[in-house]
Amino acid sequence: MKEKIIEKATDMFLKLGFKSITMDDIAGEMCISKKTIYKYFINKEVLIAESTETLNRTVMNIIDSIIAKNYNPIEENFEIRRIFKGIFQSTETSPLYQLKKHYPEIYEKVVNTEFEECYKYLVHNVEKGIAQGYYREGIHVEQYSRMYYMLTFAINENIKSEKEARDLELAALEYHTRAMSTPKGLSELEKQLSNPNI
């Protein structure tokens, strides 16, 4: 039951916002009593904390599954973008923005966890891109990875509108990719940008 509550709560938080959803809303949606929810979660903050941890694991599993498909590095980044666009498309307000504003302690924990895991992926992507000839040799892998992470993270924590954040994320991805790309990489970038589903 605990896992089902987390799953439903996470879905509702992403669709309608962390602040606006109440324990009553979750109980009503699941056709259970609020008492049942409180059996597993002492308050809404604990439920949000566990929901964000579950969401983070889901995100990392998705990234791992995309990496396993052995796309080229640019295609890989765009495929991750497409998957995440599907996950967050029903949200009007950026989830990270909501957490920062209403639940700063949970936000700090999410930030620390996400940075470690996403940074490792970004470094791997840049190294793979250099090895496969999509990115230029001689670039500072750690610096480029860190700059791109900081740019996308700043967008998500400071832009309220999820749609605006997604548009800016795409601009950041293009900027990041162009800065590193060889002619081969630029050709792949143009191919990805021409896809109407980006």
UniProtKB/TrEMBL annotation:
What is the name of the protein in this document? Answer: Transcriptional regulator, TetR family
Q: Keywords, A to Z?
A: DNA-binding
Q: Name one GO molecular function term.
A: DNA binding
* SUPFAM superfamilies in the record: Homeodomain-like (SSF46689)
Residue spans crossing the bilayer: none
Query: Residues in domain HTH tetR-type?
Result: 1-59
Pfam families listed in its UniProt record: TetR_N
Highest rank taxon of the organism: Bacteria
Source organism of this protein record: Flavobacterium noncentrifugens
Q: What does the record give as the DNA-binding region? A: 22-41
